[in-house]
Each structure stands twice: as structure tokens, then as C-alpha cells.
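As a warm-up, study this chain.
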Amino acid sequence: MSEAFDAGLGRREKTVAAQTRTLVVGPYLHARGERSATRTADARLEEAVGLAQAIDLRIVGSQIAPLGEIRPAAYLGKGKVEEIAARVAAEEIALVVMDCALSPVQQRNLEKSFSAKVIDRTGLILEIFGRRARTAEGALQVELAHLEYQKSRLVRSWTHLERQRGGFGFLGGPGETQIETDRRLIQERIVRITRDLEQVKRTRALHRRSRADIPFPIVALVGYTNAGKSTLFNRLTRAEVMAADMLFATLDPTMRALKLPHGGTAILSDTVGFISDLPTMLISAFRATLEEVIAADVIVHVRDVSHGDSKAQAEDVVSILKDLGVDGADEKLIEVWNKIDRLDEDGRAGLKSACGEAIAVSARTGEGVNDLLMALESQLARDRRTLDVELDGADGRSLHWLYEQAEVMSRRDEPDGRVLMTVRAPPETMARIVRRLG
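Now compare it with the structure written out below.
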């Protein structure tokens, strides 16, 4: 019944979104040194439109609003506010998406001037995350971030405390319900969610400790949103994680076993996509999810090499990894240039010399994936040891156990029934092999 309700709610949200005439505005500073200064204004606006399209909004227009400075009252200058207000009225715009972070006062002033609903980049990303969350943990993390965002605004149009799942209400909830909220109610809910997420973190820690009994290394996929991480995850693990050509297709973390070329096993983790100017509240709220990245033995940074802003996107990912406190990220990082199938002949011709140590792949076609698997195995083997083992071929139990515990680099079956093997494993596993097999 719950799934049917959620599906119905999702359909209603899409219907409302599709009927909401939306204008996307990019108020970008000219000043140098801004975090996203490496991107062109056109590319940033295109990304903002993509974010709005991710929740099915009806985009009827977009425009750049160049700024010399940020105005405290409405972010934009008076002339630009009047210009956009005239366009909103003329084109019957119901929602204006501002690709920036607005203060509560700026948001309210713009709404009065435009006579339309206004949301900023943070609110839009939260709305997307609210739509994408599927697990209880994901829903809790999204709600926590949204509560922190709403705490200073206390807008009475959000309804997720009643709805629990789905988007967070700037498009209205079932029956346009208005829930009376105040800071005390929000703070109480924040405390409860924080407590629940602490339990999630403890559960994850227990899972990690249990995996230490059979120590499979962790490989975490990270990258800018829509870089193709989930498609690569599916290719490597033969899983069926949602993989779509849209921003933030993946929200909830997914982990699967990954078989390496010489028979070893690793745990592959798919994570939420990063994005420029990611709200700090989301970094905090999703820390439990991203703990798998922090604990990973190898981090695979997936880049969409076909994207015009691939370099700037990569810089944002590296910056967020540093914000997360990922120690020694450079030493355990493998860079993967994905979507090479989208490149023309000239692009592919220059790829080999340009990518350096990066590995060029197409997650969609499978090209280059074997090279990636070999690189992963090599990276994971840096601290591993090799050992020559001799077993009785009739000892099937020990043979099976050895295949489960270590990577079998070579095997030779002798005529007298002996099996000669060379295996590779971490030091702690090697010690167990020596204890058991002598």
C-alpha cells in the first residue's frame, strides 16, 4: 500500500511540475576568484536548467543575469529585478529558479517583486534529493538537510512531515495541506533524525567490522553528477542500479561484490554524484552515506570526458573530497575518463596522449573496462604479498578455501596429484593462509 501511495504521489508531483511554468535565472558575478570561475556562464546556466528538468519542471525560459556585486536586499540590482519581474508577468511564470544561494530575506523580497514562487540552488537540489531518496536512510538524510534549510525560513508551504517521502513541497502537497511549524518543532525533529542517523553510522561501522573477518577491500566510485558512475557500476558488477541521463539519478548508496581478473573480490560502492557549490548542509547530512568513500581502499574518480566542463567538474569533485577529509586521496585515486563513445574521431585521436595515467572507458559499450579492472587489481595489490603454495589435489576443501581467501595468480596441476599455486593476499590474510596450510 505504501509503495502504491508513493507511486501515486510521484505521479501527482510530476503532473504539477509539468504544469509549472518555470524561468531559470543565472545571477553570476564577474569577479575573479569565485569558486566556479573556471566555468563559463553559459555552462553554469545549462547545468541549472538540467537540475530543474530533473524534477520535471516545465522550463519556458532561461537567462543570465550578470552581476558586478551581490545586493543584500534581493541579490540582484533594482533594474535587473524589474526586468525579470516584467518577463515573469508577460510569460505567466509561476516559479523562478535562482542559480545561487539566497538568504531568507532575499528570497522573500524576490517573491514579492516577481509575484511568483522563488527557489534558490540549495532548495532545488533538496527537492531533487527528496524525489530520488528510496531507502529509509536516504529519506532521513534529505529531511535533515531540508529542515536545516527551512529552519531560518519557516515557509509554510512544505508538507513533508506529513508526507514522509517524495519532494518537499514548493509545488504543494496533497490537498495543499498547510502544516503549522515553528523552530521548536523543527529542532525537535532535527534531534530525532540526527539520533537515527547516528544509529545508521553505528550499523555501517558494524558492517565494516564484519567485513574485516573476510577482508574484502572497498572500491568507491565518485564523480560529478551524471558522469556515468551507475552505468559503470552496472557494467562492473552486472547489477541493475538506476542509470539515467539525468542529474542525480543515484542518491542512495549501493554496494555489490566485484570480481577481479585473478579471482580476487572487492566491494564496489556507488555514491551520490557531486556538484559544484554543493550546499554545506548536504555534505554534513550525507556524511554517513559518504563514509564508504572515506574508508575506501581505492577511489575511482569517474569523469565525463565528453562534457565541455569536464576539467572544472573534476576540480569540484577533488575539492569536495578534501572537504570530506579523505586522507591520502591522491595515493589511492584512479581517474577514469568515461563516455569516450560520445567523442568524434578527432577527440578519440587525441585522447591517448591527453589522459596520461587516466583510464579511458565507455561504461555504455564496455570499451576499456578490462583495463580498469586490471588497474584496480594492481592498485589493491600494492601492499599485498605473493606466496607459493603446494596442496594435495584431493584436498578440495582447502582448495576452495584458498580460492575464497586469496587471488590465485597461477595454478599448475601435477601428474602426481599435487597442485602448485601462486596466490596473492593482504598481510593479515597471508598470515591465516600460513597458519592453516603450513
